[in-house]
Amino acid sequence: MVRLTGEALRTGESVLAYFSTFEAVFMTLFWHELLMKINDVSLKLQQKVVTLSNEVSLLVGLGERVRELKQEWQMICRRAGEIANDLEINADLDSASIRMHRRLNERFVAIRSIEQRFNVPWRFGSVGVSEIEQAMASHYGQDGINARELATELQVAQEGIDGEEISVDGSTCPLRLLNVLKRDGLCGAFSQLTLLLRLYLSIPVGVASAERAFSRMSFIKNKFRSTTSQERLNGLSLIAIENDVANSLSYGDLLRD
């Protein structure tokens, strides 16, 4: 027979008392509905082909689905009442103890601002010259990218690159676009676009507030962060961006040095 301490016994009694209330039944159903919606989006965000543009669309859809829970409130209450009756629990909910919060839009601000800096290049098949030039002048000068050359390259890309070949689910996939440029030997001709692609692809998909906390990112961080300094992470990002220079290096000579 297991002997519990007084503190453990009191904790167990408190937990049992809570889960014998209608509030516990209701909140279990509510969180199940909410977390299932979040889990569906989280699984899609962990796919390799997902970009920040896809992420913003998924998060906007998630926000709408979560807000729909307000319309499903009474339905959840009815279902909780049926379960409570089966469990012989008094179906009495303290409405003041449960509130719906309206802060979803605030969580999306950071990731949306990042996506807006890059969304014009990925829509180059459907935007006009003036919009391209305006976006280039507004966003890319500070990143070491020649905005005028990038605008010209995007205009040429509209005519010379097959949109279907670089698309996933109807939207441009930056990784496919970069692979096509490299496969066809066009990285030199599209130098600014190539640089932009490498910058963009070094930014991982994160949560709505631009934190990197989805399960795949957490796994990588937890496994390697303890032995990987910030300086090394910055170096790896630089190697990814300056891919041509990295490919020209002799790593054997570097290791011997």
- Regarding quaternary structure, how should these chains be classified? single chain
Order of helices and strands: HHHHHHHEEHHHHHH
The largest pleated sheet is described as: 2 strands, antiparallel
Count of alpha/pi helices: 13
Protein name: HAT C-terminal dimerisation domain-containing protein
Domain HAT C-terminal dimerisation: 189-244
InterPro entries: HATC_C_dom
Pfam family, one: Dimer_Tnp_hAT
What does this molecule look like?
- With 257 residues, this protein is mainly α.
- It has 2 domains: 97 residues, no CATH class; 129 residues, no CATH class.
- It contains 13 helices and 2 strands, in the order αααααααββαααααα.
- The protein has a two-stranded antiparallel sheet.
- Strand 1 and strand 2 form a beta hairpin.
- The longest helix is centred in the N-terminal third of the chain and has 24 residues.
- The protein is elongated.
- The protein starts with 5 loop residues before the first helix and ends with a helix.
- 19% of the residues are buried.
Question: In a few lines, what is going on in this structure?
Answer:
65% of the residues lie in helices and 2% in strands.
What is the fold's blueprint, element by element?
Layout (H helix, E strand, L loop, with lengths): L5 H13 L3 H24 L6 H16 L5 H14 L17 H19 L6 H11 L7 H14 L6 E2 L2 E2 L1 H10 L7 H11 L13 H10 L5 H12 L1 H6 L2 H6 L1
Helix pairs in contact: 2-3, 2-4, 3-5, 6-7, 8-9
Organism: Perkinsus olseni (Perkinsus atlanticus)
Protein name: HAT C-terminal dimerisation domain-containing protein
GO molecular function, one term: protein dimerization activity
